[in-house]
Amino acid sequence: MEIFVALFFSTLRQAAPILLTSLGGLFSERSGVVNIGLEGMILFGAAAAAITVNRIEVATGGLEAAWIPWVGLLAGATMGGLVGLVHAIASIKYRANQIVVGTAINIIALGAPSIVLQVLYLNTSTSQPVENRLPNVTLDLGLGTGTISILVVVAFLLVPLIWWVLFKTPWGLRLRAVGEHPEAAETMGVNVIRMRYAAVILSGVLAGIAGAYLSIGFLNQFIRGMSAGIGFIALAALIFGKWHPLGILGATLLFGFAQALAIQLQGGDILPASIVQALPFILTMLVLAGFIGRSRPPAAVGRPYDK
To answer: Domains along the chain?
Structure first.
């Protein structure tokens, strides 16, 4: 029974960053902008959060305070939002190819943090470990207890909130209209450009929060490439979940379970190690192969809007 309880909590921990990132991608794509750059936004957010917390600790002589990791979280969210703004300017204002812009962000995110790490820590791969991590909460299932980061709880609470925003508020109606029929939305007085900017920036903020979770919640430092494909898995969850918050929740739990199971199987003799490590990505490819073409994206997604 302890194994199943451990697997349950591991699934929650692995699903949280995918869920946060996928919900961010939901806003962007519901507005009509493809965001392939989610992976890079995670990395930028993770680096900003860990480096900010570390610099505060250095400046204060190793101070341990409850507010410090929240400043790191804010830094990660802000950095993700700024990268989202760059994506929005290139894709919306200059009408660049959205796939190319997102790919460029991902490539830059592999190298840019290394420059900062080299300047601050004289290496290109990791930041210094931090003492002030995001707080954890303990859940009792009756069959056993487990500890998870507060951001895991926040990620799952965001699902009903975002569902309500998208389907029960005028702002959500306008966002969906912009992603389906921007010309018709414009004739009804909706500012299509402004809505798309807001959605893409918000997607960056949520991806940055996912990055902060990785570097100061799940771990205690930034590691180059630590996102490990989470941004791409989040895009697969977006397609699998049919661009709906509840569908995304189910998809991210499935992917989170696959990653948790791979962790549990490591060190065993059931499957070769290479197959165990590739299990989440194999599942991602199978999902994409089965659902691309069957799930209908927003009608105007990927199409620049010329007012």
So the answer is: 2-291 (1.10.3470)
